[in-house]
């Protein structure tokens, strides 16, 4: 399934005449030079290696998200609009459901599922797969921590977390759970018949996206945090998956692996929700921020701090706000 997707992407790129000419020239240059960069470029441009094209595409997406976050481009401008729209839609029943969903992605549950899967691999003596599994989860955690500390981006609600978790980009829940369930689905699908691979991939994607959406709904992260986490997680899965497939997979019992991981998720997730739901209901309660200023401050320079344009849900700057009014609605009507 993955190979066919890569082939479609490669064929689409190669079909464009200008792209074909540029690709051929770059391949010729790389072939006559002997350096680490030229060898990497040769692998990247090799038509028999669509996996490298896919990794390059992911790298471009990741760079684009990072660049937007650092420079404050439309993706970041859309953060506030999406945040406000979702907070306006919040209800008590919706909060209860989304809090339970986000608790399924907490560190306690991630660690429990990780250990259960690791024990299953050890039971089956799948040592190479165990190493990849540990590298997947530990690597994702390291990536999250390094980027958070480097960028120091604040969350929409600054009082939710402390330490490195207080920083916003990328979303830890989104990254960790994308890697956890994405790489787990990859390993389970390898041992199943082709007909079952798509349902497994769909289930893992649904769980990861649902947890990511809960972070947006509860106001714990900006939209760019979540998309960045999903992109980083997907890229890390791709790197590990392509590397793992360079050798034949070890026998580890895919159906047993799926059963063990689902059981661990149910038990650890249920326990986490039971223990923390009441506390988290207070923690994630919607607390609207109302900013005020006196009439004197507004007339002096306060009006300059108010928005000058409407920003739409895609972060684009739209119509100018040319009038500011201090007074009641009936008067201006």
Question: What would you say this structure looks like, in words?
Answer:
The chain is mainly alpha-helical. It has a domain at 79-283: Up-down Bundle (Vanadium-containing Chloroperoxidase, domain 1). The chain has helices at 2-15, 17-31, 36-45, 50-71, 74-88, 92-104, 107-123, 127-151, 172-190, 194-217, 223-244, 254-283, 295-300, 329-332; strands at 309-311, 317-320. The protein has a two-stranded antiparallel ribbon. It is elongated. The model is unreliable at 1-19 (pLDDT under 50).
Q: Spans of 5+ residues with little confidence (pLDDT < 50)?
A: 1-19
CATH topology of the domain at 79-283: Vanadium-containing Chloroperoxidase, domain 1
- Using the alpha-carbon principal axes, give the shape: elongated
How helical, in percent, are the residues?
A: over 70%
The termini sit apart by 61 Å
What structural category do the secondary elements indicate?
mainly alpha
Q: Strand fraction band?
A: under 5%
Number of strands: 2
| Number of helices, counting only DSSP H or I runs of 4 residues or more | 14
CATH class of the domain at 79-283: Mainly Alpha
The value of Rg in angstroms is 24 Å
The succession of helices and strands, N to C, reads: HHHHHHHHHHHHHEEH
Mean pLDDT: 80
Please summarize the sheet with the most strands.
Answer: 2 strands, antiparallel
CATH architecture of the domain at 79-283, please?
A: Up-down Bundle
Strand order of the largest sheet: 1-2
